Amino acid sequence: MFGRSVTLFKLLGFQIKVDLSWLILAALITWSLASGLFPEYYDNLPSSSYWIMGAAGALGLFLSIVLHELAHSLVARNYGINMRGITLFIFGGVAEMENDPPSPRAEFFMAIVGPLSSAAISISLFIVAFWAQHTGLPVEFKGVVNYLAWLNMILAVFNLVPAFPLDGGRVLRSFLWKWKNNLRWATSIASRVGSGLGMALIIAGIILIFMGNFVGGLWWFMIGLFIRSAAQRAYQQLLARGIFQSKKVKDFMVKDPLTVPRTLSLQEFVDDYVYKHNYQMYPVLSFGKLAGCVSVNNVASIPRDEWPTQTLSTILTPCSSETSISPEEDADQALEIMNRTGNSRLMVVDGDKLVGIITLKDMLKYLSLKIELNDVETK
After folding, report:
1. What's the whole-model pTM score?
2. Is 286 within 8 Å of 292 (Cβ atoms)?
3. Is 304 exposed, middle or buried (0-12, 13-18, 19+ CB in 10 A)?
């Protein structure tokens, strides 16, 4: 889902990260508030005041989303679900769960707490705004508090729309799951509703663009694309986890994988392996045992004129849990690592011995065949 992200801080044990796309959103919000909304409602202020208010509004949105996702994370942790952290990106934020909720009850409370927290923030800010209105506080403060109060109320209401993957869609899924005791069926229905909402937003965005509201229409169009894509992807991921949980990594691994010797020069490595096979990462062997890994990025960090004289032994790195996995692990764990790290190939390691390679391409090919044959568990 994300591109490159930066960890900002830890809050109650959760890593708070910002995807670089969030910077685009923060800049757009600051600009739109400073040049549009605040001047319209609070005239005759200095230009610098509008920009300060705009920046404060963007910061307030950041904190509001963090608190919203933190509520999800705390409830998830209470139900024993491991949370990787909270990431903010251009369309909002997401609490990153490693597994699906264990029960409809857990799903319901994890979902509903988000809109409830946004509503609580909104009510609190409305109280502050009412108090500020009867004091001598600066108009800039009143303007930002009013904006954030209404913004959180809108977030609460929008997230209650029963379209997956919005919180309301997860509430819908929890009821459907409880009714039929079938998570796959419940996710299928909730995802279809979410996909339908996404298409409706896309159409609304196109209409707004043709009516002359290009910026507003473009935002509706992009949000619709995101919701539609996220809804479809959520169902596909559920199917994948169900299929791969019953398989081991060794069932998909390719034995006798391509390896490179540590004595190979960087120039030979690039010419004979990188350009020939087009992989990003290669296992390095020494006396038949796994010595480490070498990636294209490792080579790129070395000046080109040193490639003929330096060997792989000078740049290889230990194989971490992000690049390797045991043959006895469930295959869905390999898929989870690939999804989290972006690596499409993992080394299958038994102790210090390389026994194979598992690739995303082979796993997706198997998944495609299972779905095409409709050979998927219904629970």
Report:
1. 0.71
2. no
3. exposed
**Residues 314, 319, 323, 326, CA torsion sign:** positive
Q: Are 99 and 81 in contact (CB under 8 A)?
A: yes
Report the percent of the chain where pLDDT is more than 70. Answer: 94
**Could you identify the residue written with the tokens 């791969």?**
244
Whether residue 2 is predicted with pLDDT greater than 60 in this model: the reply is no
Strand order in the sheet with 5-11: 5-11, 14-19, 83-89, 92-97
Of the candidates 90, 75, 87, 86, the residue with the CA atom closest to the CA atom of residue 28: 90
291 is written with which tokens? 């010595």
The domain covering 249-372 belongs, at the CATH homologous superfamily level, to CBS-domain (3.10.580.10)
Comparing CA positions, the residue from 371, 2, 1 lying closest to residue 188 is: 371
Domain ranges of the chain: 5-244, 249-372
Least confident of 5-9, 39-43, 278-282, 287-291: 5-9
| Full strand arrangement of the beta sheet holding 345-350 | 324-325, 345-350, 353-359
DSSP class of residue 253?
P
Mean pLDDT in the chain? 83
**At which residue do the structure tokens 């034995």 appear?**
255
